[in-house]
Predict the structure.
Amino acid sequence: MRIIEDELLKWRFKRGSRAALARIYEKYVNALLSLAMGLLNDPHEAHDVVQDVFVSFAQGTDGFEVKGSLKAYLARSVVNRVRDRARRKRSQQRRIDALATTAGGSAATDRTLVYSERCERLSAALAQLPCEQREVVVLKVKHEMTLREIARIQSVSISTVHGRYRYGLNKLRALLNGDMDHE
Amino acid sequence: MVTWTMNDNEKLKDIIRDNLDVRADERTYDHMRNTVLDAHEHTGRTASASSLALTRSILMKNPITKLAIAAALVAAVLVGISLFSSSGSGVVWAEVAQRVQASRGVIFRLTEEIEPDPYSQRVDFSINHYSSTKARLDRYIGGQIVNTMYNDCGTKTVILVDHSHKSYVQDTNAKDMPDSLGIADPNNMIERFLATEHRELGQKTIDGVLCEGIETTDTALYGTRNPPDSLTAQIWVSVETGYPVRCESEHIRDDGQKRLKWVSDQFQWDVELDEQIFEPDVPAGYIDISPDEW
């Protein structure tokens, strides 16, 4: 259902439909916020990234940019912006680990995004994975993308993605061992 | 509550699915939504698409306006925009635009490419039927039609029939749908093309047809609000018939990271299209999966 509805939304949006854009926002904003949180472990940055993605998307209605899956397109946009932020942070000589260690404090005071304590803990654990593994795990499990789609986003082979997925899950399992209960 | 022993990947995946859940609160949701819609509004895309369609509609119906446009084209020649002809050419470009406008119907193939292609699903090409107010787009993969889109600008109705999933979605009240079908619309493309700065390419034979071409690198072809980084687009017109034979565009975006190309060819111009071809054909048993609200 999502695919065919998205085809029509894309088609209408390309022709300038404000209603189609509103529907795309409504449909995907929370999924993208969850994705961004899983990649960034920072609600402020997750919010900024998702807003930037939608604003850029809203301004880019010319041409044929959005081909194939709309969901995959938006997810890829989030991933690219997360990578850009990581690059900027490195260039500013800030520790990458700051993404993981500062998030808890900011999350505690930021309630413009709604998430549980378990989400915070999971997000903090994800932040300890290498970014390539973190991307694969979140995109595959939470965003339900195929390994093939993820391989295209990461510009690597499917087998490489599969390896990252396996290593990522194993490491995450170790990181969470005994720390979270499953209801 | 069950204690998780960490020995099961499926449980781990369930934990991720269930707990990595972030939502915008109402205030944030509304604020972001308004920001996004404002950004869209400020691109001018909505207004420009509608106004372009409206302009085209008026042009087609009003002979006085046609004369005014012709006068403007003469003025363009006088200021050096070689819009009407090249030396020794059989093609008069202003007449091409007029001929295309007057075409009762057109059938053509559209092929699109994007690199890098981040998606696993893409169609090989689409066969498009356009009349003045209706369009039908049949998209093919491996020689089979995977979906068909029907568009009726008169009734503002869009129906997409997905044969792959035996389902369809329809919007019978698409009030905000512009009359124009966008840049892939050959009529729209000619107008936009002639409005840019362009150069003549001379003649060459395409599919056995002697053609004359023009080329533009003016990124304004895709609008001024969000132009690509660079662009090369060509239109080739039959010297004999004066109708376009091939249109193509290749442009670069995202600081050179993305290449997009489309080609329209196999044109059949001024075809009397059977109205029945635009009647949505939804096979029995297909499921209506239209959302409750657009």
About this structure: The CA atoms of residues 7 and 70 of chain A lie 8 Å apart. Confidence is low (pLDDT under 50) at residues 98-111 of chain A. The two ends of chain A are 30 Å apart (CA to CA). Residues 2-176 of chain A form one domain.
